[in-house]
């Protein structure tokens, strides 16, 4: 068995790719992995380590074909706020706006309801959704890439993550390893001060355009509660900026206003959203949908982008899209 490095040793990207290859290939013990992940998180992962680890995961994934311009919007999870499934709803809204979305996600590891849990509670057959992913993406403009179907190397890691119940580098690796090879993304992370480090990792991996965002209170998505740190990553470089809900003509609201629950609770809230229910959940979804539409190249104006998302909800297109998706994924 391989011996993992001590926690105080910072790895360059090449060494990180090698070490995470050992982890993913089962060449070290579960106890060693748990120790290594917790210690690395405690001292904070470097951009080089994140990029190298993501390359190791990418090298072992099962890819799918995707139309040009396909995007993803997701959070790294592990923020401890247990909010409703914002990025899952955003995926439906953005796809209803005519932008192909390859939603990459998983079951909950450190939250009450992950994207897969909530979509399943809405009636989407996860096995069928995986089997028909390329078809639904091509014909409906949306698919769900269940991590376990595309990252078989993660099979032995998931129980370790669930046992730990805390954020680790694997939360950071997932959004950087979309099986559709998306080149445009909105990624939310749970640490505002960490945005430039994560942005550097994304820049090392390359992208057409990606927003890395974090709410000031540590929300892993754009937050209505206050300000947001945002890195605009293009190619191999990025710039930092501050973003507020008012820029999208949306009101502020506390994080508690979008507190979620178990999959059934979150699914009911998402169904209500698709039926036109107003409130902070809708506003949070529109804020993040606006960011996704901007990185997709639809507009540079936050208010215009939010209004485009609102029209996709109010017209019923997002609701119809979900119904067609459930029907096609049989």
Automatic annotation (TrEMBL):
Domain Glycosyl transferase family stretches: 70-318
Species assigned in the record: Qipengyuania psychrotolerans
Binding residue positions for 5-phospho-alpha-D-ribose 1-diphosphate: 75, 78-79, 83, 85-88, 103-111, 115
Recorded catalytic activity of this chain's protein: N-(5-phospho-beta-D-ribosyl)anthranilate + diphosphate = 5-phospho-alpha-D-ribose 1-diphosphate + anthranilate
UniProt cofactor note: Binds 2 magnesium ions per monomer.
Binding-site positions, Mg(2+) 1: 87, 221
Protein's UniProt name: Anthranilate phosphoribosyltransferase
Broad EC category: transferase
Purpose: Catalyzes the transfer of the phosphoribosyl group of 5-phosphorylribose-1-pyrophosphate (PRPP) to anthranilate to yield N-(5'-phosphoribosyl)-anthranilate (PRA).
